[in-house]
Write a structure and sequence with these properties.
The structure is a homodimer. By secondary structure, chain A is of the alpha+beta class. Chain A has helices at 11-24, 36-43, 92-106, 122-130; strands at residues 2-5, 49-55, 58-67, 76-83, 111-118, 134-145, 149-159. In chain A, strands 1-2-3-4-5-7-6 form a seven-stranded mixed sheet.
Chain lengths: 160, 160
Amino acid sequence: MLIRKAHAADAAAILDIILPTIREGSTYALDNAMADSEAIAYWTSAEKETFVAEDGGLVVGTYYLKANQAGGGQHVCNCGFMTKASATGRGVAKRMCQHALAHAKAQGYKAMQFNFVVSTNDRAIQLWQSMGFEIVGRLPLAFLHPHKGYVDALVMHQQL
Amino acid sequence: MLIRKAHAADAAAILDIILPTIREGSTYALDNAMADSEAIAYWTSAEKETFVAEDGGLVVGTYYLKANQAGGGQHVCNCGFMTKASATGRGVAKRMCQHALAHAKAQGYKAMQFNFVVSTNDRAIQLWQSMGFEIVGRLPLAFLHPHKGYVDALVMHQQL
């Protein structure tokens, strides 16, 4: 698996990954009706570094990394990860997260924080915990899940 | 004290309040060197409702209220409050927070969350706790304080 910076030419491949997740609306706090153009603009906006994971020449995952806050908070980064539905179970998210942790450290970030991990997203929570993230906050009923109603969201964190 | 929506004509009065706080850099995770124009654009950006507190015809405080997340997270709001340095100790922040809680509830928000309360900001933490906010998260060493080095930041929350 190759993880590399995303280019403009990757837009269609990135949209193939992020749109189903956004439309489904059970893991990210994003407008599930956002236009395709808004979705790609969000995922590749100027303040983010956006990467793709390629397997056998196909883009199977994408992630972004950015400073989580400005000023006195800019030493902590934030990431979002999405894996192509047809590529789940192959460790794509784990490989992207390993890449992100190494890249963030190389960039001088001192910690990585996920601000809003939906508490019903067991697969993600287990993965992040196995990779060293700790739950440092629980936001009560902060997410309206499309099928489960109001559920908590977690703040997860690790020092780099 | 009158709390009302901010107008374009309030820009100078708002800047008189927010610039010293931004420049000092010990309570908000914002670039302390941001231009005046960036500061007012940030505080009054389109996704925010911005208010001012007037006392005797003078603007002594300002706050904004916005959705903290999009999509499944849009029922939780977020606020930022700043009081004019010369007006501290008069309950300006408390009055603005009371106004914000009532306004948020009237707008249909189900909770209010502060994402990044610097842990050395004792005055703010005590005030928010006295007004019903609970600490739901602690972000380890998330803020580089200009005099105290790396300190924690708190996530505070209350249901409405």
